[in-house]
């Protein structure tokens, strides 16, 4: 009896499946996202659900990988004949993806409304050689976060405006015994270290490439690494920074073990969440500092875009999905972990409410965003620089020699 | 002759397997060799013939030499430690005591764990801020301040070796334990009666039974250790300052991160060759050991 009931149910389920399959001419999109920072996985799932509700004939399979695997996974899928229709890509990859034809040129698909509405700086995320390879989706830069309570205890009235001031304030905090190592960075042998480095390079007015050749071995590029090394050796920086990624920085900061931390937008609301953080309500945020006589603030372009792969069988549906994900209503609804790409969103009270301080920092930071070099050889350059940073921090070689070696190994 | 018929039938029976082997191992290998003589990119261009250029560049580069040293160091130390730990554990588990079965089952656990899980677990243990290792060592008074185990070139490789040993010594223990079970009780009893001490009993009574299986474990573990990738990729990605960048990581970076399929293939073949030489050397050793016993 029981068995026959189960069989009947099973049969009914099968019938149900085959019917729902026939009801619509279903298209399935495969999309690759990242499982950390900016929008949370739950946010992406919710945004996608809203899309499939409005477009019941399109199904979207979501896949999440850590940032560290995003590039290689995309390229590998492409190399083996495809698999994804929509991929999330970092601002540093369009040059390489365009050169190797990983992404579809969508310049003509972008409407006038998008052209006018999206912040001009955001477009640099998806551009290479005058063409656009997707829509900007995550608009991000590194900010200087500070622990208001610790600064107050140290008698510091305002957060630092220059990098030298940051070092002085950190030293005061260290000397007063409030914290052993007041600053936390993400200097692990990974892209995260290059983002911190780039922020400093922009502050010191440095350049990565000039006339096709490496230009970071002198001037601002060298000053930036020297600053990192002196911050590390003087003990004002948490020595564990050289194995930290962004999430480690967040944990240290929200446990109250850092007075200052450089991190992305998403940390602001998470570190202010009492369920997550011991420093909720004490989190201050300002643009990353500048250098006297050279810059007021500094920032790295850490934005990411959504693009269609050249192997996709469904570029129309893929574009429809991207338009939904990057639309102003979607972005405004999930503005807590990633700020919208749309200029008018910043005047919208529903977006700014409760994060006025972050919005104020964003207005200045986003305007100063400095790009990492756009070159098809970016991965090589980055790997060489990561090594240089670590060797200099560990004192294995001088900052100058480390950067020279990096220039030689950069493939440029 | 019946002999030839049996041989022919054996070949016929093996034919499907041979076809599959050629398809899934032979062809990719041939294609890799072809690729290694070109400057092909992973996506985009097919690449032109460049002869031995890739090999010359790879072998001559300081990256390769440094990675070879790192890999050798990793393989030698971790395999040696795994062999010693494995045999000790097997000897212990071969004793009669309460809870032996439970302990035997428990010991297989690290080995059964996926490497990525193991690596993540050890990353947490080594965490410089909140890790269990730092906490334990400071509480025991062995350390006065927390250390960044994976952030210092001096300790990173050792930390990786420990994590790798923890995962892999159970395999050696398992093989050794199976061999120990084959040692006839009356022989060990007789040796005991004859007044042989623990060392002599191990050396002259047990070791001959262990040697063959242990050599097999040694071959397996050496080859695996030489190809090590995942545990390092998860824990340090080759850092700090490339101090844990092994040959496999170099192959991965070359072929996939930098997308130079051609030179990546040449490097992969160099590693394959090195591993083959090791395997052949061990096979000769095995044969000698088998001949001796």
Polypeptide structure, described:
The complex is a heterodimer of chains A (412) and B (293). Chain A has helices at 2-23, 41-54, 67-79, 94-99, 112-117, 120-123, 148-153, 163-175, 191-203, 219-233, 246-254, 266-271, 315-326, 328-333, 349-352, 356-367, 378-393, 399-409, and strands at 27-34, 58-65, 86-90, 127-128, 131-132, 135-138, 143-147, 183-184, 209-210, 213-214, 260-263, 283-289, 297-298, 304-308. With 412 residues, chain A is of the alpha+beta class. Chain A has a 5-stranded mixed beta sheet. A 5-stranded mixed beta sheet of chain A has the order 8-11-7-12-13. Chain A has a two-stranded antiparallel ribbon with strand order 4-5. In chain A, β12 (283-289) and β13 (297-298) form a beta hairpin. The radius of gyration of chain A is 23 Å and the shape is globular. The model of chain A is unreliable at 1-6 and 8-23 (pLDDT under 50). By secondary structure, chain B is mainly α. Chain B has 12 helices and no strands. Chain B has helices at residues 2-36, 53-60, 62-93, 100-112, 115-126, 132-139, 153-181, 185-193, 198-226, 230-235, 247-257, 261-292. In chain B, α2 (53-60) packs across α12 (261-292), α4 packs across α7 (153-181) and α9 packs antiparallel against α12. The radius of gyration of chain B is 24 Å and the shape is flat. Chain A: Residues 1-25 form the signal peptide. Chain A: It is found in: Periplasm. Chain A: Belongs to the bacterial solute-binding protein 1 family. Chain A: Its main location: periplasm. Chain A: This is Extracellular solute-binding protein.
Task: Break the fold down into its secondary structure elements and pairings.
The complex is a heterodimer of chains A (412) and B (293).
Chain A: H1 2-23, E1 27-34, H2 41-54, E2 58-65, H3 67-79, E3 86-90, H4 94-99, H5 112-117, H6 120-123, E4 127-128, E5 131-132, E6 135-138, E7 143-147, H7 148-153, H8 163-175, E8 183-184, H9 191-203, E9 209-210, E10 213-214, H10 219-233, H11 246-254, E11 260-263, H12 266-271, E12 283-289, E13 297-298, E14 304-308, H13 315-326, H14 328-333, H15 349-352, H16 356-367, H17 378-393, H18 399-409
Parallel strand pairs in A: 1-2, 1-3, 8-11
Antiparallel strand pairs in A: 3-14, 4-5, 6-14, 7-11, 7-12, 9-10, 12-13
Chain B: H1 2-36, H2 53-60, H3 62-93, H4 100-112, H5 115-126, H6 132-139, H7 153-181, H8 185-193, H9 198-226, H10 230-235, H11 247-257, H12 261-292
């Amino acid at each position: 009896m029981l068995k026959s009931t189960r069989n009947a149910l099973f049969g009914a389920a099968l019938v149900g499946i085959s019917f729902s399959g026939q009801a619509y001419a279903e298209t399935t999109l495969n999309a690759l996202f990242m499982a950390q920072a900016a929008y949370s996985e739950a946010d992406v799932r919710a945004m996608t659900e809203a899309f499939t509700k409005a477009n019941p004939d399109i199904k979207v399979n979501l896949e999440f990988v850590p940032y560290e695997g995003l590039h290689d996974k995309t390229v590998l899928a492409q190399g083996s004949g495809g698999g994804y229709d929509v991929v999330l890509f970092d601002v540093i990859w369009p040059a390489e993806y365009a050169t190797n034809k990983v992404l579809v040129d969508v310049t003509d698909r972008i409407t006038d409304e998008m052209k006018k509405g999206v912040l001009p700086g955001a477009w640099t995320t998806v551009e290479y050689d005058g063409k656009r390879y997707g829509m900007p989706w995550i608009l991000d830069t590194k900010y200087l976060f500070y622990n208001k309570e610790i600064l107050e205890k140290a008698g510091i009235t305002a957060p630092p405006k220059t990098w030298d001031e940051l070092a002085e304030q950190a030293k005061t905090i260290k000397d007063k015994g409030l914290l052993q190592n007041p600053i936390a960075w993400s200097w692990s042998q990974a892209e995260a270290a290059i983002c911190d480095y780039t922020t400093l390079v922009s502050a010191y007015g440095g350049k990565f490439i000039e006339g096709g050749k490496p230009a970071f071995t002198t001037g601002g590029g060298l000053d930036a690494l020297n600053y990192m090394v002196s911050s590390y050796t003087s003990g004002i920086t948490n020595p564990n920074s050289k194995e930290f990624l962004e999430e480690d920085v967040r944990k240290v900061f929200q446990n109250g073990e850092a007075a200052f931390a450089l991190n992305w937008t998403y940390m602001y609301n998470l570190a202010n969440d009492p369920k997550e953080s011991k420093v909720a309500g004490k989190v201050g945020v300002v643009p990353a500092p500048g250098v006297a006589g050279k810059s007021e603030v500094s920032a790295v372009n850490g934005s990411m875009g959504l693009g269609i792969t050249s192997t996709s069988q469904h570029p129309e549906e893929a574009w429809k999905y991207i338009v939904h994900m990057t639309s102003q209503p979607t972005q405004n609804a999930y503005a807590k972990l990633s700020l919208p790409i749309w200029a008018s969103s910043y005047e919208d009270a529903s977006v700014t409410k409760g994060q006025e301080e972050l919005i104020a920092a964003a207005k200045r930071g986003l305007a100063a965003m400095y790009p990492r070099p756009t070159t098809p050889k970016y991965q090589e350059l980055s790997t060489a620089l990561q090594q240089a940073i670590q060797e200099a921090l560990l004192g294995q070689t001088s900052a100058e020699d480390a950067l020279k070696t990096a220039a030689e190994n950069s493939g440029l | 002759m019946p002999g030839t018929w049996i041989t022919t039938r054996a070949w016929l029976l093996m034919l499907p397997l041979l076809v599959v082997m050629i398809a899934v191992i032979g062809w990719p290998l041939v294609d890799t060799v072809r690729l290694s003589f070109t400057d092909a990119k992973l996506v985009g261009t097919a690449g032109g013939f460049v002869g031995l250029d890739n090999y010359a560049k790879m072998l001559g580069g300081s990256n390769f030499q440094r990675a070879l040293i790192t890999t050798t160091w990793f393989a030698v130390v971790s395999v040696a430690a795994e062999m010693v730990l494995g045999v000790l554990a097997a000897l212990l588990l071969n004793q009669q005591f309460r809870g032996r079965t439970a302990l035997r089952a428990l010991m297989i656990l690290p080995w059964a764990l996926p490497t990525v899980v193991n690596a993540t677990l050890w990353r947490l243990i080594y965490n410089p801020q909140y890790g269990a290792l730092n906490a334990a060592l400071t509480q025991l008074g062995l350390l006065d301040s927390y250390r960044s185990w994976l952030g210092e070139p001096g300790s990173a490789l050792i930390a990786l070796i420990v994590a790798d040993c923890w995962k892999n010594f159970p395999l050696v223990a398992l093989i050794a334990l199976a061999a120990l079970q084959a040692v006839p009780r009356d022989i060990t009893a007789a040796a005991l009666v004859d007044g042989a001490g623990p060392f002599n009993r191990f050396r002259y009574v047990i070791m001959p039974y262990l040697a063959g299986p242990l050599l097999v474990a040694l071959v397996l573990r050496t080859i695996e250790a030489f190809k090590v990738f995942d545990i390092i990729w998860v824990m340090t990605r080759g850092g700090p300052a490339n101090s844990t960048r092994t040959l496999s990581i170099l192959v991965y970076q070359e072929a996939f991160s930098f997308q130079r399929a051609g030179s990546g293939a040449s490097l992969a073949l160099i590693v394959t060759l090195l591993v083959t030489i090791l395997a052949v050397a061990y096979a000769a050793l095995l044969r000698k050991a088998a001949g001796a016993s």
